[in-house]
């Protein structure tokens, strides 16, 4: 997470030396978890390795302090509207924020605020009235100070996402809701003609993911999955090195991911008056309310943004195999080159129509997996514990995924290896444990793999402006160009993780036809591509309603 650089909030200001000195000092103090977007040189891996070493603050510990990022941004100064010029409110992308919880406030809200020259958050939606009111109040205060009420209207607040999506004054939506709502809300947003930024993972099931891809392609809207690692320079450098054959043929890819603990209180509790619990459950089964199944309720009417219990319930997601797995599997696929590149290979845009029969991307042909799951009576939370996965691809490469490996991605080829990770992340007391044995963000068996210059005929991958994932999405909306993490790539990363989860649950090898996206000769495994959906919610109901 990064606070907004002042140059975005003051795009046309002429700085006096004293003001510039103040701003530089302020920016140096408020950076959380790394340097400002665009400040790293891709060609210098030493700088990339060092860029976060002095910023070890846990994002989630920062959130728990109760200081809202956008509130911090609002404090220093006010901005006369004349400084905006072409960035006047009427020329900006108008964004609706769907979900005002832990991820929305740590990712999407600051992502939009630091790109104030391109967008404005004009509406918020949440099923928890306390979180909704907190988000509206904070945004109202931020924009009132920033704009001095010149052309500013209050942030609209919605309890019903469908009502917000019907609002014609909203151009785009950020979806930061629990996993089981992702695909349905993306389908509804696409049908409403809204550009979409969707938090990962893309879907709860493979069927829902494929339905979402079809809806986005049909609508032609710009879609970006929150696979922000594609916008970080060390991951792009790693994938370009692999794609250009600097390791030779890739034989193995090793991915390390964290796990979640078992536990969770099971006693039935009254449903809080501020929570629309039936709608929160959405398409999943109707079960009694207990706080550890949803999210912390806080005290005295104040929201609590601690890590929510729903992340550890299989009713709402698959656990860390999709929660973190989507990030690293996506990078592995990007480096292995097993997909159409969204910039150089697709005929028009990332949302062009899919082939009539086969899907344009590929994936594993065989997955063998096993995992430990909580024992009955150990508590409410039932997502997987320790796990080992081997996913074999058509070219013979094998992807090994385990919680026993360092968190990151390691490509192993005929001529050496390359390691890449986020780096600099220290788990907070409320985060799942993860192995961190290599503190470098990028490394290789031969330094030349990373330092050698690229030639004019080498493969170069999409470089997000300012290395900012949210800005990449906003620029794509403005220019009608493909973003770095389009819908099909987002689905295929999640698809591989969900296939792995099927293997973990069944404890046996499953064989696949990735082009047709189906499991071969295993009806039980194939049936796990979808789940029963509770009416009136779910992707099937949404597609029927939308026609």
Structure described in brief:
With 547 residues, this protein is an alpha/beta fold.
Architecture overview:
- There is one protein chain.
- Helices cover 32% and strands 13% of the residues.
- A nine-stranded mixed β-sheet has the order 13-12-11-7-10-9-8-14-15.
- Helix 9 runs parallel beside helix 10, helix 9 packs parallel to helix 19 and helix 11 runs parallel beside helix 14.
- The chain has 547 residues and is of the alpha/beta class.
- The chain is globular and about 60 Å long.
Report how far apart the termini are: 39 Å
The average pLDDT value, as a whole number, equals 82
Hey, roughly how much beta strand do the residues contain? 5-15%
Shape: globular
Largest sheet: 9 strands, mixed
Low-confidence segments: 1-84, 341-358, 425-431
Count of helices?
19
In total, how many beta strands? 15
- Helix content percent band: 25-40%
Question: Rg from C-alpha positions?
Answer: 23 Å
Report the structural category: alpha/beta
Lateral strand order in the biggest sheet:
13-12-11-7-10-9-8-14-15
Considering the chains and any ligands shown, give keywords for the structure:
single chain, 15 strands, 19 helices, nine-stranded mixed β-sheet, 547 residues, six-stranded parallel β-sheet, disordered N terminus, alpha/beta
Blueprint of the fold:
Blueprint: H1 6-9, H2 17-30, H3 45-50, H4 59-64, H5 69-74, E1 93-98, H6 102-113, E2 119-125, H7 129-147, E3 156-158, H8 161-165, E4 172-175, H9 182-191, E5 195-198, H10 206-219, E6 223-225, H11 233-243, E7 250-256, H12 277-281, H13 320-323, H14 325-336, E8 366-371, E9 387-392, E10 398-402, E11 408-413, E12 416-420, E13 442-444, H15 448-451, H16 469-479, H17 487-506, E14 510-513, E15 518-519, H18 523-526, H19 539-546
Parallel strand pairs: 1-2, 1-4, 2-3, 4-5, 5-6, 7-10
Antiparallel strand pairs: 7-11, 8-9, 8-14, 9-10, 11-12, 12-13, 14-15
Helix pairs in contact: 9-10, 9-19, 10-17, 11-14, 14-17
